[in-house]
Amino acid sequence: MFAISCINFLLNYRAHFVDGHSMDPTFQNGDRLLVHKSKKFERYDIVTFEPKDELGESYVKRVIGLPGDRIFVKNDQLYLVEHLDNDVDLSQWIDAGVLPDSTVVVRIAQEPTLNLLRNVEEIPKDHYFVLGDNRSNSKDSRSIGFVNSDQIEGVVNFRFYPFNRFGFVH
Q1: CB of 40 closer than 8 Å to CB of 49
Q2: Which of 90, 113, 119, 121 meets the CB 3.0–4.6 Å disulfide criterion with 72?
Q3: Which helix (H) or strand (E) holds 5?
């Protein structure tokens, strides 16, 4: 039974080392996390993923946008709205200054990403919009675009080091 439990643990979990400050104050540089590889993730879960342009690296970010969420780019601002019907003209709401509850507004600073997202009306199937908790110091979907579900390694649900911050996270 012990051997089966150990094998199950090794197959379903992996360790992750936090390198940087993009998730401050949730995680700090040097934290060690446990990632559940087979858990289905939801909005606001913290995930690790391998960025397309940096193979072998692993980022930790929070899932903000899910497939099907509506997005609209105006100037350098991205508006992300969950659960909004396709027949609603989001641009008119933005122009009127009336935004639905739970609208996320972020600034997109990099021109290539801005151009990529400008023509997208909703987050495509199997793609996610992720952000670091420390928005002023994070390389996330604002600069790298959507994250494909194939890139996501798993959901972070436990910090095992440092010992004074040991425990479950969300």
Answers
A1: no
A2: 90
A3: helix 2-12
Please indicate whether residue 22 is annotated as part of the active site: yes
Please indicate whether residue 136 is annotated as part of the active site: no
Tokens representing 35 are 């990632």
CA dihedral for 40, 142, 104, 126, sign (positive or negative): negative
Q: State which amino acid sits at residue 3.
A: A
Give the CA dihedral 132, 51, 108, 121, nearest 10 degrees: -110
Query: What torsion, rounded to 10 degrees, do the Cα atoms 50, 159, 67, 11 define?
Result: 70
pLDDT, tens only, 63-74: 999 999 988 888
Reduced to 3 states (helix: H, G, I; strand: E, B; else coil), residue 144 is helix
Tokens of 88: 């609603």
Tell how far CA 154 is from the center of its chain. Answer: 11
Q: State the catalytic residue, choosing from 5, 39, 58, 61.
A: 61
- pLDDT tens readout for residues 136-167: 899 999 989 999 999 999 999 999 999 999 99
Closest CA to 158 of 9, 36, 63: 36
3-class DSSP assignment, residue 141: helix
What's the rounded mean pLDDT across residues 109-132?
88
Distance CA 91, CA 73 (A): 9
Q: Which of 5, 22, 38, 139 is catalytic?
A: 22
